Structure formats: C-alpha cells, structure tokens
Amino acid sequence: MSRPIVPGPTYAEMRNPLLLPAALRAEANAAREDERNPLNLYNINWKNTGNDVERIVLPKELTGVQANIVVLSGRTFPSGSMKVGPAYATLAENEAMHHLRPGDRTVIGPSTGNFGIGTAYVSMLKGYEAIVVMPDNMSEERYDRIQKYNGSLDLTPGTESDVILTLERTHSEYVSKPEKYVTLAQFELMPNYRFHRHVTGKAVVDAVSGIGNGRVAAFASAPGSAGTLAAGDYVKSLYPDAKVVALEPRECSTLYDGGQGQHRIEGIGDKMVTLIHNVFNSDLLMLIHDEDTVRGMEVMQAGTAVLVDRLGVPSEIACQLFGRFGPSCVCNVVGAIKTAKYLGLGPDDNVVTIATDSYDRYPSVSQALYARNGGKPSDDQLEMWAKSVFLGASLGEIVDLNAPGQHERLQQMKADVWTRFGYSEAYIRQMADQEFWDAEYAKIKEIDPLIAEVRGAI
Known about the structure:
The chain is an alpha/beta fold. The chain has helices spanning 11-15, 22-30, 60-63, 84-98, 114-126, 140-148, 163-175, 190-207, 231-238, 254-257, 290-302, 304-311, 315-321, 327-343, 363-373, 379-391, 406-418, 425-430, 434-442, 444-456, and strands spanning 55-57, 68-73, 106-110, 130-135, 152-156, 181-183, 218-221, 243-249, 284-288, 350-355, 398-400. It is 45% helix and 12% strand. It has a seven-stranded mixed beta sheet with strand order 1-2-10-7-8-9-11, with helices on both faces. It has a four-stranded parallel beta sheet with strand order 5-4-3-6, with helices on both faces. Helix 4 crosses helix 5 (114-126) and helix 11 (290-302) crosses helix 12 (304-311). The radius of gyration is 21 Å and the shape is globular.
C-alpha cells in the first residue's frame, strides 16, 4: 500500500541551501545529531546547509606544485558521502515525475559502495525497502553501513573491476521487473548527471573563490559512474579553456587501453565507459597506481607528525588531513597534482578535485596494507610514501583525449557496452553532441517545480 512521500530539496536548494527557509535550515542542521531524522534530506549539499563550500587547499609542501590544489570534501553529506546526492535526486525525480510512493516498489541501487550506501540511506529516510547490488569483495565497512541503514545486499562475484557483473544482475533481476522494482541506475540514468553538473559543478566554482585568480583551470576526478565528471560540464560553461581530467587505476586501464585487471581503488575503475559519461567533454586521461592511493591514505591517516617534521607541512593543515581521505580521494588528489604538472600551472591557477567520502570506510583497507607491508609502516616508510605518492607524482601514462580519434574511441566503447542493455545505437550517437547533454541538464527547470509541488501538497 502506498504511503505519503517524505519530502526533500529541489536541485536549486541543494545547489544553494540559502534558498531554504531559515527555520527549515536550522531544523535540518539540528537533525545532524540523529542521522535517521528525515530532515537530513535537506543537508544534501556541499555547503553544510549554509553558504560556504566544504573544502581544503592542500599545502604545497605536500603537493610539490605551485598551483593551488583545492579539494571538495563530501564527508559532511548525510551518510558520509556525496554519493547520497545522486541517489536522492534519482528517487526524488521518480516521485515527482512518475508518482512513485513508499510501499509501491522496492528500490534497487547498483553500486560498489558509496552510491549503495546513499541508496539505502535515502530509502530508509523516505520509507522504501532497498536492495543494494554490489561486488562481494569490497570493504566490510561498506556492507556494514548499508545494513545499518536497513538495506539488503545482493552480492555479485568479484571486486570493483567486476562491476559489469553487478550491472548484468541489475538488468536481469530488477530492471526487467519494473512492476516490482525501481532502479536507481547510477551508471545510466540522467539524475546522476544533473545533480553533479548543477550542484557539484557550482560547488567546484564556488570553492576557488578568493584562491589564486578565482577561476578553475582544471577539474580532475576518477569516473566510477562518471557522474562527478559532469561537474566539468558546468565548469566549462563558465571557463571554456578549463580542462576536465578523468583518472583511472593503472591496474584496470579500460579507458586508457582496454585493460581489464583487478585493483584496490574502491569507487572507480569499473571496466566500462558509463552511459552518462560525456566523453567529448573530457580532455585528459591519466592512470594512477592503486597501491599509491592506499599508501597515500595511510600517510594522511598515520603520518601527521611525519608530514610536519619531515616535509614541513604546517601543523594545523596536517591535522586537517587526518580522517578525510579514502583511496579514491587520494587517487583524485594525485591526479590533480599530475594535472598541475602536466599543464605547467602556476600560483594563480586552481585545480579542483573531490574527496568523495572519508577514512571511516577504510580501516580494513589499512589492515590489508599492513598485511602486505609486514606490519604498520615506520616513520621512514611514511616519509618515503609521501614523497613518492604526492611529491613524486609522475607525468607518465597520460592521454590527450583531444587528439584525433580518442573521443570517438571512447564513444564506441560506450556503444559496445550499452547496446547490450537495450539502448539503441541512435540514442548513444546523440551523446556525441553537446546539445544532448545541455537538453538533459535543462530538464531541471521542469523537474524542480514538480519536486516543490509534491512537497507543498503534503
């Protein structure tokens, strides 16, 4: 039996929380004390339901580059990751446009972790049952968080690099039964694109206010679903010369050269070009070694004193790094450093990237690192890792996607995957034109009034 929906914000309100009534913002902030309070839906934004973006400017003693490396932090989103944003947006669009109500159908979230956590969390707040489809070899903390939010697990074989099996399960078991399930298909549905272009893109631009020249020279992010890369479309609408940089695990270099290996960077490197990846707007592709991301995470988590005493990082900044970064976050940081080096950027230039979540999902990853390393790293090892991972970020394994044929190559890879799941080649060909993406983005103007109307009718 259907039940009334639990309301939440519009795209505009997630982009600019100050559009919310002051009393509602105050109630939402107070609700942070109880993460099961549905008012936390109004905390789905980059600005802590205020006006300032949650960000950190990395110290040059760590990055080794003159450009400013600015990192948006997704850790203060409800559920602890910004992936809750596209999960909410997809469900809210279904409620506003397709009249979905709690009790109608079970919510399905294909994921390798953070999106699944977000799906379970939003479903719990809104009163839906949720099933998260994900590989069976991710960090234990991810499974625990999903179950904490009342989500069920449907596990497929493998790791991050086997997400295609998750996709196949999703389509065969759930997408094929729309009368029973509503699938928040992050790899293929446009609310993910719309959220990141509108909400994350504006946060990226706002994050550099007062830093360097106040402009974005480059935006770097590793694609899992590739939703986050949509922020680059918004950046380019303001700064056409800005570069959008996609990052991949060296061990699973699918976009780079068709590589299909296993890797340890949870949340990225999914062995495919996702449907919502606007490949013609990506300028550079870089490979990042997965072990570097885990070592870099450990440096930030266990090496505060080393960073201060041996690298000269200011103490207050070194302390701010603690607890903020998981492996995919470090991957993005290393990619941002490589981008600054590759483009020869100077002290006025800003490279922006994303820390999707924080360390709380990865203690088991640290334990696995200790096992490979023969124990916890010494201060000498942490110093060596800091210098090799961050200061020593290399300029190797970089592809200029604006070179002849590169975008077309990725577009064909997209078609090869998604025609298997029922999308026509004609539809996928439309994605080679920026007008397709602009039209999808423009739908926010139609969707937001419907979300507000549903909220007002309760």
